[in-house]
């Protein structure tokens, strides 16, 4: 393996590993929603008033729902599980980025799809615009490492198809 190829593979692995970890962490935060919100509520006076009101509303809704209808939290358990399952799909490009570039493309498409979901379903569900934008930021932040990976994989692909004579390596 040529040094430039080895370096690209290391970069690709680092970015994919980062993405997998971020996806899993963002997913598992769906499990303890009520306890996380109770911690945030202790510091709510540090936020702007509109965010304080939103957090109070959400905390009250989650607490009431968990008390009276705990089985509804099962939906967020599945949300967390879905994040973990999707993260698992990225093991393919971690092992063989060229063959599994489609997973990176799938991830980038999913990141773009966050925008219409947040901006269409958000108003329908009564989600404030500032929170819709926070949700959209996950798509924006998610697509960055995936796009970097995609470009590195395409560069790796071009290196591998380059004739040996153009790489300045000679067989003896």
Would you mind describing this structure in some detail?
It is a single chain. This protein is mostly helical and 172 residues long. The chain has one domain (3-161). Helices cover 77% and strands 0% of the residues. The chain contains 7 helices and no strands. It has helices at 3-28, 33-41, 49-68, 74-89, 91-95, 101-124, 129-161. It is elongated and about 60 Å long. The mean pLDDT is 93.
Labels describing this entry:
single chain; 172 residues; 7 helices; mainly alpha
Cα distance spanning the termini = 16 Å
Percent of residues in helical segments?
over 70%
Q: What is the N-to-C order of secondary-structure elements (H for helix, E for strand)?
A: HHHHHHH
Number of strands: 0
- Choose one word for the global shape: elongated
Largest sheet: none
Query: Which structural class matches the secondary elements?
Result: mainly alpha
Number of helices: 7
Radius of gyration: 21 Å
Q: Strand content of the residues, in percent?
A: under 5%
Query: Which spans have pLDDT < 50 for at least 5 consecutive residues?
Result: none
Number of domains: 1
Report the average pLDDT across residues: 93
Quick description:
With 172 residues, the protein is an all-alpha fold.
Structural topology:
Elements: H1 3-28, H2 33-41, H3 49-68, H4 74-89, H5 91-95, H6 101-124, H7 129-161
Helix pairs in contact: 1-4, 1-7, 2-3, 6-7
